[in-house]
Amino acid sequence: MDTQFLEATVSIRGVIRRPDDQVLTIRRSSDGGWELPGGRLHRGEAVLDCLHREIREETGLAVAIRRPVEAVSWQNAAGKDRFAVYYDCATDESGVTLSDEHTESEWTSKATACERLSEVQATATRRATQPEATK
Which positions, given as ranges, span the membrane (predicted)? Predict the structure, then answer.
């Protein structure tokens, strides 16, 4: 049996929620698409350190990381392997300070966030926002 192992770029992202259950989405400068905050894991970097760093760099927010809600691998349009883990995150802050990587941010309902995000990111958002008893 010939098994091909994944050789992927790893991304760590957060479904950031306020106490009012609004979800943060940010718009990419590169193509105008909406996404959840996060980014690539550096070699030797701890996963949760990466998530705190990326969220701070992209939004200026401090968050509490709760739990992983989704993990997925895929191949992008260029044929490159990708792997991402999404975490449920909480913050009491509302003011977002964007990096140059993004042009806009919006705190929005789960439904609106899921409409504008990719299917994988929408799935992570739905899982992060489910009531505790159904998780």
Answer: none
